[in-house]
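User: Predict Tunicamycin induced 1's structure from this.
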Amino acid sequence: MAAHSLSSRCLFLLLLLAIQTESSRALLSSPDLNPPYPKAISDLKDAIVKGLGFQGEDLKVSGFDVRDAQVGHSVAYEFDVEIDNKVHPFRLLEDVNRWDYVDLPIFRPVGDENGLIESRKSDNVLPVLAPFQLAGPMELWIQDAKDMRLSLPHDVDAGVLKKVILADGAVVTVKGARSVSLRHPLDLPLPLNRTQNGFASGLLALAERLRHTSRTQDAPLLSLRIVGATSLSSPTSSSPSSTNRLRLKRLAPGLVELSSPSKALSTVSLQEESTTLLTPSHFTTMWPLPSINGSNSNLLGFETLLASVLGPKANKKGSFRLLKADVLAQTFVKIGFGVEKKLKQGDGIDLEGYPQWRTKPETVRMHFEVLAKVDGEKVVPERIMQVNPVTVEDTVAQNLVVGNVTMSTTPIVHPPPDPFAL
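Assistant:
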């Protein structure tokens, strides 16, 4: 009897423990006790609702689940062109090649200490530009000077480099840069010759004119700012006696000049310049980016866009000013959300053609997808698209299909007997 009482008590305690566990799970899964949106997502939600003009108490916005957010990297090109005292901004964005589910630090809930620590280390996961080449004459201002690395072709200890001057003929490969921007406006001459034989001859001829002007002592050097933990190195070559080797000259603390020891390169460039200025359609590369080919699709597209903005002015003698030129590696987020709104008279929702046998809806639900860029600790919406959700096929009862005929009135048909049937 005592053993039976003891087993009953153990069973009762196990039952209470199971009930307590299920109650705790129910409390944890309650929507009222879920952690709030991360601040970045909460600000994104407010900006979208305000931008779409959604107002009123009969509105409900759902979604913005960070577990469904997809993250991708792309390159943005931003230009401000001044034509006849009018500024024309351009913003071009490369397509994102790959979307992944990534746990960004800004997606951590509010109050997550680990998230705050990770957000301070977010510089380690920021996207960078693909390696590219720059050719002199020009000057480079390095924002993250402490993280600068110089290789000619072996690593050189030149101290904290804040400014690097590339002499005429010097070419370096830039790695690890997050952005490159123009420090001073440029006056660009016209006319702009249009694309010929598949090459962006207009922009290439314009670049050669600027390169020729920058070689004079009176003209200021082309000045660029580089942001990011960057490394500058000589272009790799299989030949040990290659002219790609650069010579370092210290001009001041934090200031060095890189030059090519071969003077033949400058001579050949001057001879080629006299020819290419007469026949711009034979250009193959663009200064100061020798790694960009004249048939590059982005270059061709930008020349067509610029020519359309210039209009007839593109074929006349004159000039225009490039105020801003930025190339940035950016992180983008793609996330979906839904909007549920109560239907009212005058909303403009047309229910004509809606099946009469179905109950008229009282609310309408719309689905959207937002593309936003990650800017530090903020998520800024770039484009909002309305998407169509997966449609569910309607199911209709059999009595509605056959005209509401009951089985009692359906005639019974007896098929002829089959002698082979069991």
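The helical segments are 2-28, 39-52, 113-120, 201-214, 264-276, 297-310, 398-401.
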